[in-house]
Amino acid sequence: MNHNQASVSSNTQEDVDEITQQIRALQSSQNDLSRSIRNLQVRAARIQNQKAAVSLIPSDVLSMIFEECCQLNPQWSGVLFLLHQSPVEVRLSHVSSRWREVALTSPSLWSTIRYPFAHKEGSLMEYLKRSDGSLLDVYIGPWRQHPQTERVLTNIILPHLPRFRQLVLDAVSRETLGSLLATFRDVSAPALTRLRVMCRGPMSTAGPLASAELFTGGAPLLSDVRLDSVAVILPKTKAKTLHFCPLPGAPFPLTREKFYKAVSAFPSLRRLHVKSAIELKSVAPVPLIFLPSLGELVVHGLAMSTGIRIFDVISAPNIESLYLVDMNCSTISAIHRFMTQSFPNAFQSLRVLRYIRCEFSEDMDIHFLRATPGISQLLIPVDKTNFLIRMLVNSDKQAAIHGCAPLWPELRTVTLHTPGYCAPVVAAGGVPGNEPSTTMNLLQELATGRKILGRPLSKLCFKGPNAGSFANEFHWGLNRAKQSVPTEVVLCQMPALLEDGGLEHDWGGVAEAYGMQLRHFFQQSHGIRQQLATILPPNFSYQQPRRRVDVHV
Fold it and tell me: For residue 375, what is the enclosing H or E element?
C-alpha cells in the first residue's frame, strides 16, 4: 500500500512539473508575443506620426522652436520649482523619441543653471554635460552658507567659469554675500558679459555693506553690471551699463569712497542708473568721477536722500538723456541750479529730459532753459501747478514779442503722465461742462505758441489710467481754438509708467522675479511651520523638498 501511494505521488509530482513547464513556456511565448505586438504598435505609431505635419519639421527648426519655448515667461521658472514641475526643456524631451533626440542635441536648452534650488547636484551635472561646452547663464542663490552647497559651487560650478555668459549672485544676508563674493575674487571670466549682485535678505547689522573685489584675473567682455547697495570693485572694464539698485527695507548707503572705486572701473560707461543712497560726507576727500562717454543718467530720489548732489560725485559733460525719479522740489531746484551754472561747458548734448513723479518749486529759473538748448524730448507729470510748463509758455510769449527763436528750440515731443490730474466735471460727450482747467489752457497755449513760432510739436503724448479722458478734454479746448496737434494716448496703469523712469523688463528683471518667488515661498513655509510647531511633537523633522527634475532628466 505504501509503495503504491509513493508511486502515485511520484507520478502526480511529475505531472505538476510538466504542467508548470508548459505554463511557463506559454507565458514566455505570451511575453514574446506581447513584446512583438508592442514593437509593431510602436513602429505603426511612428509611421503614422511621420505623416503628421509636426513630424515634417526639420530638426534644426524644431530646436529653434524649443529654444523659443524656454524663453516664454522665464520669470516664472521659480514657480515651476515651487509647484514641483519639471522645467520646459525637460518636458519637451519627454514628448517623443525624436523630440528627445532633438532636445538632447540642442546644448542651448541646457545652458541655464539655477543652483541650489532649481538644480540639485545630480541634475546640475547632467545639465553641464548636455550643455556641451556652450555659454552658460548661471543663477546662484538665494545663497545660504552650507558645506554641501559650498563644495558643489567650488568643485562643480566654478571650473566652468570660463563658459559663464551671465552670472547672478543672490545672497540672503550680509555675511553670506561676503563669502559668496570671495569665491569669485581671484578668478577670471573671459566670456562673462552680464553680472548681477543681489542681497535681498534681512540685515542684522546696520551701515554700508563691505566692498569686494571680483574677477581680479579679468572679465574683458563684461558689458552690463547691476549691483545692490554694494560696491563691487572690478578690474578696468569696457562695460557700458552700470546700475546701483536699492536694498529692500531701510536704505544702506554707499560710501563715497566705495562708490568712487566701483564706478572708476568703468571709464567707457554709457548708461548709469543710481537708485542706492550715497553718503553725504566722507572721511577723506574723494575726487570727482569723470565720465566723458556717459550718455544716459537715471537718478532716483533715494540716491539723493542723504543731501548729496549727484553732480558733486560725477562729471558727465556729454550726457544725452537725464531721468530724474521721485525727487522733491528742493532736490530738483539744486540740480537745475548746477546745470545752469555749468553753462556753456556741460549739458549742451542733452536731448532727453524726464521727470518721473517729481515736484517743482515756483521759483524756477528761466536760465535753466537757456543752459539746455538741445532738449527735444520732455516728459513731465501733470499736477495742479505745472511750473515748468508755465515757464515754457511764458518764454515762448517773450520770444514771439521779440521775434526771436524760443528757448528749447528743438523741443518736438512732450509726454505727460496724467495720473495726478483731477479733471473737472464732465458733461455728455466726454467734454467739460464748464471752462477748461488751468492745466488745459497752459497745454493749449504751449501747442499753439510753438506753432506760431515755427517750431510746432511733432507729438503730444498722454500716459496714464485716465489718459483717455485727459485727451478728450484737451482736444475739446483745442478744437474751440481751431487748432490741432498730433497726439498719442497710452492707457496704462501706474506700474507701466515706471518704464519711463528707466525700469527695464530684461534679464535683470527676470533674475529678480525668480529670487522674489523663492523668497515668498520660503516666508510662507516658515509661517506654516511656526503654526504647526504648536501641535507637532518636539522631535518632528521636515524633509527637504526634492524636485522631480533630479531624477527624470
Answer: none
The SS3 of residue 488 is strand
pLDDT (average), residues 408-422: 89
Task: Report the candidate in 449, 349, 353, 332 with the shortest Cα–Cα distance to residue 395.
Answer: 449
Listing DSSP states for 391-412 in one string gives: HHHHHHHHHHHHT-PPSSTT--
For residue 179, what pLDDT is reported? 87
Q: Give the DSSP per-residue string, 31-70.
A: HHHHHHHHHHHHHHHHHHHHTSGGGGS-HHHHHHHHHHHH
The DSSP-derived string for 132-163 is TT--EEEEEEEE---HHHHHHIIIIIGGGGGG
- For 77, 451, 518, 551, the CA distances from 81, given in Å and listed in that order, are 7, 58, 9, 14
- State the Cα–Cα distance between residues 368 and 361, nearest whole angstrom: 13
**DSSP state letter for 297:** E
Tell me, what amino acid is at 148?
Q
Give the pLDDT score at 423.
Answer: 64
DSSP 308-347: --GGGTEE-TT--EEEEES--HHHHHHHHHHHHHTTTTSS
The alpha carbon of 483 is separated from its chain's Cα centroid by a whole number of angstroms, namely: 42
Hey, how many other C-beta atoms are within 10 angstroms of the C-beta on 513? 17
Q: Do the Cβ atoms of 257 and 282 come closer than 8 Å? A: yes
Q: What is the DSSP string of 506-542?
A: SHHHHHHHHHHHHHHHHHHHHHHHHHHTTTS-TT--P
Least confident of 5-14, 279-288, 484-493: 5-14
Quick check: 244 and 271 in contact, CB under 8 A?
Answer: no
Amino acid identity for residue 242 in this structure: L
CA dist 450 and 456 (Å) reads: 5
Instruction: Give the three cell numbers for residue 417.
Output: 503722465
- CA 103/CA 247 separation, integer angstroms: 39
d(CA 313, CA 303): 11
Local structure of 437: helix, strand or coil:
coil
CA 190 – CA 203 distance, rounded (Å): 33
**Cell digits for 150?**
559650498
pLDDT digits (tens, 9 = 90+) for 36-94: 888 888 788 777 767 777 778 888 999 999 988 887 766 555 556 656 678 888 889 98
pTM score, two decimals? Answer: 0.83
Q: Which residues contact 276 (CB under 8 A, 6 or more apart)?
A: 228, 229, 244, 245, 246, 247, 251, 252, 253, 254, 302, 303
Neighbours of 427 (CB within 10 A): 10
